[in-house]
Design brief:
Blueprint: H1 9-18, H2 25-32, H3 47-74
Length: about 80
């Protein structure tokens, strides 16, 4: 089973830079956080970065709601 996740451009580039040749993003992330909880990554980001990520997630969520509403309106 796979899941879609949203990453900031900065985080995507950091993972990409640490990804080994022939390694999938899932494999790279698993290797990079092996034996670590996502809670352990709390010290990786400063408050400003966390706020930016929250804002980006909220904006993307609102955009999704708007798009779904627009599609639903077309079927009414």
């Amino acid at each position: 089973m796979s899941h879609q996740v949203r990453l900031s451009d900065d985080l995507y580039e950091r993972i990409k830079a640490n990804k080994r040749e022939g390694e999938s993003f899932s494999d790279a992330i698993e290797r990079l956080i092996e034996n670590r909880s996502l809670r352990d990554l709390g010290d990786v980001f400063d408050d400003e970065q966390v706020d930016e990520m929250r804002d980006a997630i909220e904006a993307a969520d609102q955009n999704d709601v708007t798009e779904v509403s627009e599609v639903a309106d077309r079927f009414e």
